[in-house]
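As promised in the previous annual report, we have extended the structural survey to additional targets. Below is the entry for S41 family peptidase.
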Amino acid sequence: MNPRFQKLLWLSTGVSLGVVVSVGFTAIAQKETTGPLPLTELRAFTEVYGRIKQDYVEPVDDKKLINEAINGMLAGLDPHSSYLDAEAFKELRVSTSGEFGGLGLEVNLEDGLVRVITPIEDTPAFRAGVKSGDYIMKIDDTNVRGLSLNQAVTKMRGKPNTPVTLTVLRKGEGKPLTFTLTRAIIKVQSVKARMLEPGFGYVRITQFQEHSTEDLVKALENLSKEAKGLKGLVLDLRNDPGGVLNTAVGVSAAFLPEGSLVVYTEGRTPDSKVRLNATRENYQRDNNRADILKSLPKEAKTVPMVVLVNGGSASASEIVAGALQDHKRAVVVGTQSFGKGSVQSILPIGPTSAIKLTTARYFTPSGRSIQAKGITPDIIAEEATVNGVNPDAYRLREADLEHHLENPNGEKTDKATQKADDKKPDAVTPPAALTPAKPAAKKGEKRGKGDDAAEADRVDYQLQQALNVLKVQQILLAKPQAQPAAATASAK
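The corresponding structure token record, generated without further manual editing, is:
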């Protein structure tokens, strides 16, 4: 493995530190600080520290003061830098394993409240109806305002089969909503696959975990065997909050020619300047094992593809979508993605704590930074409206986060304009009047899982548009090409 890549964060691409934490563990070499220390500011700090110790209404522990000072220093940088005490560092390790106890929410802290980035599919929160953009104001009887994100996460986690009540604020609702959930062991199945129609496969990646590349290969093998030769493939990255960086490289490598540039990073230090290509050393940590892409069906490199994205597609999802788009390997369909284009590294501070620090920005192969901008689809396809409201209009994006990093290419996302654009009707958004009603089951008829899946497809307009694009591509591929004039003349 590239030793410089080892110094970057393997698991660097998650949206937030929350109920799901998509960050990893790596140490960056200590570097000498440059420039003189700001003595005036340090004197002010020590004076404030002394005043608190002497005059505050109650005694304050030194450890608490120092930890809170570190927290504030990092929180003021950007939304993704934070301090990891021993408990937070333990939570981090648990979350990246792909199995943990809790509710199944990707969250962030905004205006003192916990805001839901996205609920993870097939988890208690998802099944209960918690939605992206919801604000959690109370956990059981505890007000969230005033709690740190780690404290709120700890309260939501707990032993499986124990209840927890969330009080939620939702735009468009006149009063708070209450959800009583039962905690569960969250086992995130990151790759799901099925046939949409004969010859047209569908793969959904819900989160980029350590084994997602291997799971993708197995899914593609099964689809290829079932289809006896795929005509087209939809890769669904909607509401995928990110995850493991080398997995994003592996997923991209499954569809790109070997050696293709997938992503590169730029930061202030030499360690943060890395180019990641579709090569084994960049997507597989254990090179003593057989190549995890070895059994990949050959058609994966050539089958017509559509990548689906939306405002919940972040970080690792954006890396994959951007790479496939730049190499013209796939058509990107959906709505503007989240726009997280920064890399976080874990720097040890003492034996039990660390800081999660933003150390670089990443760029797509053509040099685009998606920071606070996102991936712009080739074909805009809005989600179906509910009572005239586009759900994507209320999604949280990187540009909405306080202290977010600016786009280094000068591409700025105006939040007001973006939200207004989200509410505009799109040419491929079907009118509400055309929304097909779910047919009632006949007496004695039982609906199977296949029926439910088919029903989901009938109302998933973005997926339908993806399938339509694949069919058009298939028609174009099947159309005989006209012979060049010179060749025709020579034949005569």
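Residues 2-30, 414-458, 486-492 have pLDDT under 50 and may be disordered. The chain has two domains: 100-187, 191-476. These points will be discussed at the next consortium meeting with the crystallography subgroup.
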